[in-house]
User: Which sequence fits this backbone?
């Protein structure tokens, strides 16, 4: 029992490392080749966890080969556009200038019910509002609405706000994030001064966020009972 548990922990750590090596795309929308590799790795990992008599290395080697193949394929797809199209295919326009392409739907084996379900997931309930819809290689459908149905932007209203960047987590449960402070353009001197103004220390802060305009939010930890 203990050997099985140890083998499982080792494989678990190894798979996490492998997924990190393959990149963040493996954790998001998968291309067909990436999906195949992910499924095969999950299958291969199950064998050495269940078969305690099987040498652990025999289970890890096929996973390493798959990871190497995925990295090689990713490199080829990056350098050779034809190879990318061969593996991942091409995006397909299914609504062109407001006209639904029924032939494109048939080629993709996509029913109108599937299309409407995808559109409803994007809060679009009327196909007549769509100017362009493109089926991406990862299976998602990108949509551009007709001009009269698009929300006005700040530029359209001549009311562009100043760019304050993104609010980043400066302190997370008492831990200061130097990387986030660099993105916000603040330093430890600013942080110390701000905390002193609130009569607190970083160790007593549950959450602190800030942006490039130095607008911040501080939430202190609950008092221990």
Assistant:
């Amino acid at each position: 029992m203990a050997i099985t548990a140890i083998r499982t922990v080792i494989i678990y750590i190894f798979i996490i490392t492998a997924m990190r090596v393959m990149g963040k795309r493996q954790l998001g929308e998968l291309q067909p080749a990436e999906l195949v590799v992910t499924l095969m790795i999950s299958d291969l990992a199950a064998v050495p966890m269940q078969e305690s008599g099987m040498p652990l290395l025999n289970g890890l080697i096929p996973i390493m080969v798959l990871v190497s193949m995925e990295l090689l394929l990713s490199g080829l797809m990056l350098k050779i556009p034809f190879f990318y199209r061969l593996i991942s295919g091409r995006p397909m326009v299914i609504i062109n200038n407001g006209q639904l392409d029924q032939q494109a739907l048939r080629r993709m084996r996509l029913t109108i019910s599937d299309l409407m379900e995808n559109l409803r997931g994007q809060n679009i309930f009327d196909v007549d509002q769509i100017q362009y819809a493109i089926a991406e290689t990862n299976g998602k459908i990108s949509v551009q609405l007709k001009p009269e149905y698009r929300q006005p932007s700040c530029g359209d209203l001549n009311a562009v706000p100043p760019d304050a960047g993104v609010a980043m987590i400066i302190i997370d449960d008492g831990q200061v994030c130097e990387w986030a402070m660099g993105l916000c353009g603040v330093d430890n001197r600013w942080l110390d001064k701000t905390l002193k103004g609130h009569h607190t220390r970083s160790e007593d802060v549950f959450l602190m966020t800030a942006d490039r305009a130095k607008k911040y939010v501080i939430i202190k930890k609950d008092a221990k009972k």
